[in-house]
Design a protein that fits this description.
By secondary structure, the protein is an alpha/beta fold. The protein has a single domain, classed as Aldolase class I (TIM Barrel, Alpha-Beta Barrel), CATH 3.20.20. The chain has ten helices and twelve strands.
Length: 344
């Protein structure tokens, strides 16, 4: 390992990127079966003893923030609302101080089911904002994608999040050709009317292998062309560390305007500015969403490793990060784990 390797225990890789954003999966379980994420029959969930306990999650959060320079934590799943202790985990994270002396920025990626009952509690615990997955405002299309008839529950969750101040609310939608792409303008209109920011995501090869092909993926250029038929869009200056490129949307007769983001991970990757580190529900560090290897923290932690030893393992895992995800490479291989098993 070179002299630039993690002697100071920052999550720096050999390409000069530093991870400040922790994506923390709290469970691999989910109450939807979205086709781009898992098969309709679901997956074999991790046994409870293989997932991190609350105490273990809290310890690793503390190490990330106090020893490794993490400034943002996004709680993910599976569906993180299924973790009953979520408010306690949020509260613990909110009690920590980053290197700048501030509370970590805390957010949640959720499918919205049950958010109406938990939004106020999570806001009181210290959660700052939410990202809600909603791939269509057409109930039939939503049911076709998710294999569940729960769109009304998602809208209830969005309303509760807004009332609890968990804003800005971002709505995530995976664009799929011939499935929900034609309805993206309607989805954007609803988001603009409610003050939410729609973020359209290019379909990535992270679900069942038979569900993805480059030919069936809707690229950013086509998404813009489709939206441009209905809305007046102006490209905004890009935040280099943000996954989404934003476009301003001019006000229209039936909406007040706002913005829309596109996460073009496949056709316009942002790997060169990626600042994320990922921790799975069973305690594995992934230095990239598409990584083929993981670094185990659960085993050493349960075997008695010190905080310093765990921090060193984590830093070394990030040092080994590749320059990019390699989807365009001829030798690209999809990760063994599906999206719900990795964490969003």
């Amino acid at each position: 390992m070179s002299q630039e390797s993690p002697g100071a225990l920052t999550l720096r890789d050999q390409w000069g990127r530093v991870a400040r954003d922790l994506r923390l999966s709290l469970t691999d379980r989910c109450n939807l079966r979205c086709s781009y994420c898992m098969p309709p029959e679901g997956l074999e969930w991790l046994p409870t003893e293989q997932t991190l306990s609350d105490a273990e999650v809290m310890r690793l959060i503390r190490i990330a923030v106090e020893m490794l320079g993490v400034e943002e934590i996004r709680f993910t799943g599976g569906e993180p609302l299924l973790r009953k202790s979520l408010p306690e985990l949020v509260s613990f994270a909110a009690s920590l101080k980053t290197a700048s002396g501030k509370k970590p920025d805390l957010s949640l990626t959720t499918n919205g089911l049950g958010l109406d009952k938990k939004a106020a509690t999570l806001a009181a615990a210290g959660l700052d904002r939410v990202n809600v997955s909603m791939d269509s405002v057409d109930s039939g299309i939503y049911r076709h994608i998710s294999h569940r008839d729960r769109l009304d529950d998602v809208f209830a969750g969005l309303r509760a999040a807004r009332e609890a101040g968990l804003t800005p609310i971002k709505v995530n939608a995976v664009a799929m050709r011939g499935v929900n792409d034609a309805g993206l303008p309607d989805l954007l209109r609803v988001c603009l009317q409610s003050g939410a920011q729609l973020r359209i995501i290019e379909h990535m090869p992270l679900g069942p292998r038979e569900t993805w092909s480059r030919e069936n993926m809707v690229p950013q250029d086509e998404i813009l062309e489709l939206l441009g038929e209905t809305f007046e869009l102006t490209e905004a200056e890009r935040d280099p560390s943000a996954p989404a490129q934003l476009w301003s949307v001019a006000p229209g007769a039936d909406h007040p305007g706002g913005s829309v983001g596109i996460i073009a991970s496949v056709t316009v990757p942002f790997c060169s500015t990626c600042d994320r580190t990922r921790l799975t529900a069973d305690g594995q560090v992934r230095n990239c969403l598409f990584a083929q290897t993981e670094t185990d923290l659960r085993g050493p932690m349960r075997a008695g490793a010190s905080d310093a030893e765990l921090a060193k393992l984590w830093a070394e895992a990030m040092w080994a990060k590749k320059p990019g995800h390699g989807i365009d490479n001829p030798d690209f291989v999809q990760p063994d784990r599906l999206m719900s098993e990795i964490g969003g």
